[in-house]
């Protein structure tokens, strides 16, 4: 069965066609980076308006790329939340309209569960249970995952998400928005030990993350010595030192979660899982600790609709469908 996936939870308008929850026939993503760059972050109202303009051409683009028409679809899946309400509403309205007009079943997909489901679209599909770290611009959540829809939250961030920390530090360093990937590029030429930055941890909550202190440490450093940004070497050193601190915070919690649960499988997904240094550090940890590591390819880490269609197919197969009065949700 072919499922059309629709994703509009933040600043990416995406549509995909996936066969049997497994094979990606098409995945189209229209980013809005340049629209929000001048504001240094996503402006929700602008994001919603741009989704409205982009969504139908993006859906048509996905159908064309897959070489199918609307009549070939067996179902529609859409991100229901969490995300920006105004942005989610656009995707939901389009998905409901298509489902109603074509008399197709509609599945509502949880965005974070979809990030986890992205791994279903890869060669090596893991068995459950597993520990999953969803690390994106809005979330840094560790889960014990029993199956695609049953999971227990083991730990989360008490302040900024890891991707948010990347974006805020990139902004402090004048690297533009969104900064994660640019900061990673700059860090490649830097020494990760050059600046001693904190690795914030809460001793009584070993699986809780905290990144705002790290961001403040970078801000304080730059206030004291603005010349760091003028020199190519020290700029790269700061980027590398910051990235290393985030990577250590993330990998240490993953190791701890595996120890606590006794689980031997780790999945890391979401936009920050596209970071090369994080992927390398996780691969090293999996070698030394002897657990299986699952990382989606880069295009399936950042927001896309293929992961929505993949999880949607499982919902539809299990009869978990949405009625046409279903609403979107911002949190949860
Ligand atoms: O999952 P995602 O595309 O959207 C959300 O659901 O939030 O994640 C976006 C986040 C942004 O904060 C972005 O800066 C970060 O992922 N990101 C990265 C990299 N690529 C994307 N952070 C570090 N290194 C990267 N290569
Ligand atoms: Zn996401």
Q: What is the fold's blueprint, element by element?
A:
Layout lengths: L1 E6 L4 E8 L3 E9 L1 H5 L6 H23 L8 E7 L3 H18 L3 E5 H7 L12 E6 L4 E8 L2 E7 L5 H11 L7 H8 L24 H13 L7 H30 L3 E5 L6 H14 L2 E3 L3 H4 L4 H12 L15
Helix pairs in contact: 2-3, 4-11, 5-7, 5-8, 6-8, 8-9
5'-O-[(R)-(carboxyoxy)(hydroxy)phosphoryl]adenosine binds next to helix 5 and helix 6.
Strand content range: 15-25%
Number of helices: 11
The assigned CATH architecture of the largest domain is: 2-Layer Sandwich
Shape: globular
Strand tally: 10
The percent of residues in helical segments reads: 40-55%
Largest sheet: 5 strands, mixed
CATH topology heading of the largest domain? Nucleotidyltransferase, domain 5
How far apart are the first and last residues' alpha carbons, in Å? 29 Å
Residue ranges: pLDDT <50 for 5 or more in a row?
none
Order of helices and strands: EEEHHEHEHEEEHHHHEHEHH
| Radius of gyration based on Cα positions | 20 Å
> Which structural class best describes the helix and strand composition?
alpha/beta
């Amino acid at each position: 069965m072919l499922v059309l996936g629709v994703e509009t939870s933040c600043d990416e308008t995406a549509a995909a066609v996936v066969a049997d929850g497994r094979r990606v026939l098409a995945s189209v993503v229209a980013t809005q980076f340049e629209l929000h760059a001048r504001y240094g972050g996503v402006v929700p109202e602008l994001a919603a308006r741009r989704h409205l303009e982009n969504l139908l051409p993006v859906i048509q683009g996905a159908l064309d790329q897959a070489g199918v028409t609307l009549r070939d679809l067996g179902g529609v899946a859409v991100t229901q939340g969490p995300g920006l309400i105004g942005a989610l509403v656009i995707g939901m309205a389009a998905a409901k309209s298509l489902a109603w007009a074509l008399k197709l079943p509609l599945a509502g997909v949880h965005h974070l569960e979809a990030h986890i489901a992205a791994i279903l679209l890869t060669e090596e599909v893991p068995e459950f249970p597993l520990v999953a770290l969803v690390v994106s611009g809005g979330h840094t959540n560790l889960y014990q995952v029993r199956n695609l829809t049953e999971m227990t939250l083991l730990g989360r961030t008490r302040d900024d998400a890891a991707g948010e920390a990347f974006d805020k530090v990139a902004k402090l360093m004048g690297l533009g928005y969104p900064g994660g990937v640019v900061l990673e590029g700059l860090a490649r030429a830097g020494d990760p030990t050059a600046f001693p930055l904190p690795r914030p941890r809460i001793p009584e909550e070993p699986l809780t993350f905290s990144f705002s202190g790290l961001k403040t440490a970078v801000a304080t450093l730059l206030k004291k010595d603005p010349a760091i940004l003028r020199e190519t070497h020290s700029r790269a050193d700061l980027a590398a030192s910051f990235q290393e601190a985030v990577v250590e915070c993330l990998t240490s919690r993953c190791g701890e979660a595996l120890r606590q649960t006794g689980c031997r499988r780790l999945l890391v997904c979401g936009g920050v899982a596209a970071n090369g240094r994080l992927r390398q550090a996780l691969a090293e940890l999996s070698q030394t600790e002897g657990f299986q590591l699952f990382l989606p390819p880069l295009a399936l880490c950042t927001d896309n609709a293929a992961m929505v269609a993949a999880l949607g197919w499982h919902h539809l197969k299990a009869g978990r469908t949405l009625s046409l009065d279903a609403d979107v949700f911002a949190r949860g």
